[in-house]
Amino acid sequence: MASIPACVYIAEVSDQSLRGMLVTWPSIGISAGILVVYILGAFLKDNWRLVAGLSAAFPILTAVSTLVLLPESPLWLLSKGRDRDTELRAVPGPQEALQAGRQLGKLRALTLPQAWKPLFVLNGYFFFQQFSGIYVVVYYAVDIILQAGVSMDEYVVTVLLGVVQLVAGIGVSFALTRCGRRPMSLLSGVGMTVCMMGLAVYLQLVPNGSQAALSNRELSSIPLGLLLAYVVAGAIGFHTLPWAMLGEMYPPLVKGLAGGLTTCLAYLFSFAALKIYPYLLMLLGGDAVNPKTSTSEGVFYFYGVTSLLATAFVLLFLTETHRKSLQQIEQEFLERPLTRSVALWCGDYGTSAELCRN
């Protein structure tokens, strides 16, 4: 109930020049919350009930501040026919689209190209986000650190991962005012692939708990560096951008329904990825019970291959939304084919046709 309105509201009320930065703030808030819980967990290792109780203060504060401070978005007012309450009365695009949506019906509206195309793209993006291991690393951070053979205290490293993820997310929010979603996503996918494959190869050559891993402190810094790089790579794209684009890619006539379906599927994907992880670990040669002596390179190979497939998916299907109005994004889905070509990608950045052909 919080995930959809936050992204949609920001996309609807923000100026186009700032939208790229502002739509990432819900993800930054998630990263900040993860870091807070990591810190509480480091100090209150045996008292998860107190951690949960302290965490309950945040949604209470959010609910009160939302009720008191936030007005309704102009597009929502238009969708309810309350155009007298909004300053978008002179803008024909949103009104015509919303009127068409009311006449067509929301379920039938999902069959329109400007609805089903972003539905496919975003659901695919969220699928790869979850099964490339991003949230597995978040939720199983302590176990992952032990399985990766990091020699530092696992709770200290967990807090360090949280700090790096938050700082990288803040950096990305400013970078997205200048950079497109596609190049950031591609860079993220490539980085995640390299880090997971590198970690798998390292564990195959230097098994966790082996004499080489225990005796050489400098050698054991390699998995720490790869994990930190993986978190940064995820933060610049796959961890942040799917939630940001949730408010950008759906047209007003199906934004609520399509956004709800995508968020529901995203959390189902998350549930499946998190619950499968212990069984995947055992299937691929790891030990979920004793992670300190577990050799789990198979799991990291799995996430590396999935990250590679995720990169290919982004290259083929992800539509650029940078420096485009919500109406332009909707029109692009209506007119262009689903699969992105190199020429169209070049066109998004104003590259000459001759250079694109070359």
UniProtKB/TrEMBL annotation:
Q: Which organism is it from?
A: Cryptotermes secundus
Protein name, per record: Major facilitator superfamily (MFS) profile domain-containing protein
Which PROSITE patterns does its entry note? MFS
Family matches, as Pfam families: Sugar_tr
Q: How does it sit in the membrane?
A: Multi-pass membrane protein
One of the record's GO cellular component terms:
membrane
InterPro entries named among the record's database cross-references: MFS_dom, MFS_sugar_transport-like, MFS_trans_sf, MFS_Trehalose_Transporter
Which keywords describe this protein according to UniProt?
Membrane, Transmembrane, Transmembrane helix
Molecular function GO labels: transmembrane transporter activity
Gene3D superfamilies hit by this protein: MFS general substrate transporter like domains
Q: Which parts of the sequence belong to the Major facilitator superfamily (MFS) profile domain?
A: 1-322
Q: Per the record's keyword annotation, is Membrane included, yes or no?
A: yes
Compartmental location = Membrane
Residue ranges annotated as transmembrane are 22-44, 50-70, 120-142, 154-177, 184-205, 225-245, 257-280, 300-318
